[in-house]
Every structure is written in structure tokens, then in C-alpha cells.
Amino acid sequence: MKYGIIADIHSNLEALNAVREALSGENIDKLICPGDIVGYNADPVACVDFIKENKVISIKGNHDRLASGEDSGFSFNEIARHAALWSRERLDSTRKSFLESLPDEKIIDESILIVHGSPRDRDEYIFSLTEAQENVKHIEAKYPGLDIIFFSHTHIPAFFTKEKAETSFKETRTIKLDKKEIFFINPGSIGQPRDECPYASFAIFDSEKMELKIMRVKYNIEATQRKIIQAGLSQKLAMRLAFGI
């Protein structure tokens, strides 16, 4: 099975279209989204529609909860909260209901768990090997038999096992995996990368070859920036895209 993992899209249609084109020749069997379809950028309607129309296997992230009306967003910083509430105003009831209906986590194909933050806390950030190791213990206790976890939330592509961390993916890289391990895979962010690389980040996982490819593609950042500014969203959101921060 060949999976395409697209996370933290954050209403960035230009980046999503570039990733869709890059995936078009990869013979993907299933598309997976570990949350945050909306927020930050200016195309929430088109990005929600992409997920629905392409039957992407999705869960909801914290920005999706706020944009759907499920969450108040009081834990958000001012800029992020304003952007998510702006998205809420532009989504009709059907799209908001769709976001709200998404689960916080999902098991697929018996061995894969999809979460936004972490298996033990939907809003936890996994940045380090120590945090990943603590979540491996949680997986072993709560989900024996699961060995692949797709997560996101940090906007930084990463790959963790019990003993190993790979966090340098500023260009496309392929990693061969050991079937005996438990894997935590973060594809990075399509819509707002934060690893000091502005290119959209996503992943392909081939379960037969046990091969992970984290890919980076260029997109029209200037077009996304113009839309942010025209929408009246924070100029800081536009500026950061050029620097991948």
C-alpha cells in the first residue's frame, strides 16, 4: 500500500495544488491528512472541498476545531485565533459540520494510527526523541500491534523510532525502515512550514517496500501572500511563508 500524507494544509491552496501535482504521478493508494485543513491562510473553502471531494482519510486539528465552532480558541495566540475565526465566517454550515464530524484520531488498515498532536494528547507537540519515546510507551500499552503513527501539529517534518530521530528534511529524502520498529512520521506542513525551508512538505509511505519519502516542492508563495493581505489577515502570516518559520 502506498500512502500520501498531507498535513497542516492551513488553507494554503497554492501549496496544496503544487503537492497535488507532485503526487499525481506517484500511484498513491490512499491519501491521509493528520489535521489542520484550515487556519492561517486565505482559502479555507477550497481546501475543505479538496479533502471532501478526494475522500482524503482525515482527522481534525486544533484549527479545524476552532473554525468549525467546536472550540473557543482561547489557548490560541491572537493572530492564529483571528485567522481561524475568519475561516469560520467563510465556511458554510455544511463545511463546518464536516470539520466537526472528523475524529480526533483514526486507525486504518489495522496497523496505522493517525493523530494530530500525539497519541496521548491531541494537542501535544512532538519535537524531540524523548517525547516520541514517551508516546511509544503509550502506544505499546494502549494500542498493541500498531506500528505506524502519522502525526503533525509541529509543522516540522520528522521521523522517530524508539532509538532514532531524523529531523532534517529541507530537501526531498528517502529513508528505508526496519519492520521491527514502531514509527512516528510527521510529514511536515503543506501550508506553513516551520523548519526554515519555505517549500511545501509532505510524505509518501510505501508499506510493501518499507520506504518513507519526505518531499519538498516549491509553490507560488507570492500568490498566497497576496491573498492573506487582501483578506485582511495579519501581514506576519504572509511574511513568515517566505522564510519557512
UniProtKB/TrEMBL annotation:
According to the UniProt record, one GO cellular component term is:
cytoplasm
Q: Where are the transmembrane segments?
A: none
Q: What is this protein called?
A: Metallophosphoesterase
Which GO molecular function annotations are given, in alphabetical order? phosphatase activity
Domain Calcineurin-like phosphoesterase, by residue range, is: 1-209
Native source species:
candidate division NPL-UPA2 bacterium Unc8
Family membership, please give it.
Belongs to the metallophosphoesterase superfamily. YfcE family.
PANTHER family attached to this UniProt entry: BLL5683 PROTEIN, METALLOPHOSPHOESTERASE
Q: Name one Pfam family in it.
A: Metallophos_2
**Listed InterPro entries:** Ap4A_hydrolase, Calcineurin-like_PHP_lpxH, Metallo-depent_PP-like, Pesterase_MJ0912
Q: Which domain of life is it from?
A: Bacteria
